[in-house]
Amino acid sequence: MVTRQGTNRDDILQGTNGVDFLIGLGGNDTLQGLGGRDQLFGGLGNDFLDGGGDIDIANYSTSRARVNVNLARGIATGEGRDRLLGIEWVIGSNQNDVIIGNFGDNSLWGQDGNDILRGGFGNDFLSGELGNDSLFGEAGNDTLAGGAGRDRLNGGEGTDVVDYFGANQGVSADLATGRATGEGTDTLVSIESLSGSRFNDTLAGNTGHNALMGGRGNDLLYGRHGNDLLRGNAGNDLLDAGKGDDRLEDSEGGNDTLNGGAGNDVIIDRSGNDTINGGAGNDNIEDQGGSDTINGGDGNDVITADVFSIGYGSDTIDGGAGNDNILAGYGDDLIFGGTGDDTLSGGGGADYLVGGPGDDVLSGGLGADRFLIATGRAFNMQDVGVDRITDFPSVYAIDKRSEKVVLDKTTFSVLGSVAGSDLLDSEFATVATDSDAALSDALIVYNRSTGSLFYNANGNADGFGIGGHFLTFRSNFTFNAPLLFAYDFRVSDIVNSIL
To answer: Which spans in 348-433 are helix H?
Structure first.
């Protein structure tokens, strides 16, 4: 970095191809930045500021007079009349300045005073800082930061964001009302997105497509209508997307609540022990760490938990209504398919899998898994459906006795086996055909030739009574069904408390 300072006479200051500070002081000076990102201080007099290549700054922070800068015309007035060339950024004085951009991407800082900043064309950054400022983004996708004071922030055309990162307290901003409070009361016009402070913020969208970024505090983000992006950042945040096809991201820790609402949402949860509610619609939920509670809600949802991440926890996952696809990773997870024809995969860990109403496909994965058959009331086929277990261990597997099919006493009410113990040998039988199953004296009957498991609620009477075929053991890759014994089944009366 090179600093060159002139005199009170007419000086010519030339920079380098690096980062330069050129300070004109008095006189009618010529400042040439050449290459690199340079700052040019004209000072008193009628100066010529030539930034050269790269992004260069005309700095009027030392001016005792208000400045009027127009990059489109290449003119600045204040403590003289300057000509500007190759200038992209402007820093104003501590007076009431007017700064106007050009066709490029400009950054304009007002400093103290009641300033007027106009971005012009391009994707601009406007910062009013102290004072009651008026910021106009105009054309392009602009970022507006009002700073302290009662500011008017007008994004103009394009997709524009108001940024409160520099605020010294939390803010409450509502795009529907066009009002924001915190370090003052701001008026928001033609703003599509909000970025919060380091404190506890409340950010709310409108009927359009909004992006709400919460910052580092414990934030409340409300998307309302539209296809919105909500990003929580650090802190314990609430992200409530509302209607629309939204994207919700928990990017940096905290124990957060993410509500997708109605619509086909994408929810990405990166860390923390969070609560995720997909809501109505076909949602895609990706959990990347922590011990989380995930509710898919209505719709055909795809839920992955701790699969594509290094970190993991023990999650509780409920697909809700619809035909859901749930894939869990490491951790001891509790997985409910809910209503519909679901596919549940436990992954690593000792998992509990409950298919729920519908014809479900259950894969325990690695670990000592439990496949729960429970409805909370007496058995009926509509509630239970016919589930398929794809990876129940064979008689030769090392972990044969570690995995169980758990039968709820309330659902399988005629079982005489004691709750908390394995199924009695007398209540289990293996037969050769489905018709033999209906004639068996046993209550749980297995046809190994087809892998079909029956609840024979009538016992030694003909037919299954209220029972029937409720489970099939068959791999995705082979038609061979495992050899089963009574000890493969556990009878329980605590399943309802899990449900």
So the answer is: 381-384
- Can you tell me the distance from the alpha carbon of 466 to that of 470, in angstroms, rounded to the nearest whole number? 11
Closest CA to 241 of 217, 265, 213: 265
In this structure, what DSSP letter does residue 325 have? E
Vertex 321: Cα angle to 315 and 325 (nearest 5):
55
Round to whole Å and give the CA distance between 11 and 343: 77
Q: What is the pTM of this model?
A: 0.90
Secondary element (H or E) of residue 407: strand 404-408
**Cβ-proximal residues to 407 (8 Å cutoff; 6+ apart), any chain:** 373, 374, 415, 423, 444, 489, 490, 491, 492
Judged by DSSP in three states, 367 sits in coil
**What are 209-218's pLDDT values in tens digits?**
999 999 999 9
Query: Average pLDDT, whole number, for the chain?
Result: 93
Residue 431 has pLDDT above 90, yes or no: yes
C-alpha to C-alpha distance for 196 and 138, rounded to whole angstroms: 22
SS3 287: strand
> Which pLDDT value is given to residue 307?
84
- Residue 452, CA distances (Å) to 116, 428, 435 in order: 77, 13, 12
Q: What region, left, alpha or beta, does residue 459 occupy, with left being phi > 0 and alpha being psi -120 to 50 degrees?
A: left
DSSP-derived pairing of the beta strands 172-174 and 179-181: antiparallel
Give the C-alpha separation, 325 to 303, whole Å: 6
Nearest CA-CA partner of 324 in 296, 347, 353, 348: 296
Measure the CA–CA gap between 117 and 104, rounded to whole angstroms.
15
Does the pLDDT of residue 100 top 80, yes or no? yes
pLDDT by residue (tens digit) across 116-173? 999 999 999 999 999 999 999 999 999 999 999 999 999 999 999 999 999 999 999 9
Nearest to 334 by CA among 307, 369, 366, 303: 369
